[in-house]
Amino acid sequence: MQDEEIIGFDALYTSMNLCAKNVRRKANVGRFLMYGMDEILKLQEDLENGTYKARPTSTVKITYPKPRTAVATSFRDRVYQRSLNDNSVYPRMTASFVRHNAACQKGK
Predict the structure, then answer these.
(1) What whole-number percentage of the chain has pLDDT above 90?
(2) Stretch 21-32: mean pLDDT, rounded?
(3) C-alpha pair distances (Å), 89 with each of 63, 85, 94
């Protein structure tokens, strides 16, 4: 897998737009999108130079439908994770899946 497919501008830009779907109204997402081109270029540079560091996570308490604690990553980190998953992990995983299996047969 070539680095360009994961950390190239086009891959990161596509991931940014996919990550922003249905959450554009959130302040941190809006801020990132406002300066999207610059943010993607900075992220790409950090990844290429090996200076990328994940930002601190935050803990979020969820009360509905049952109380629990979740960990939220920064939007910038989600963009990189999405690109890594969509362009490397997922294709490698699904390559070994059986295309036709008994669970997918209809009419039985």
Answers:
(1) 79
(2) 94
(3) 32, 5, 9
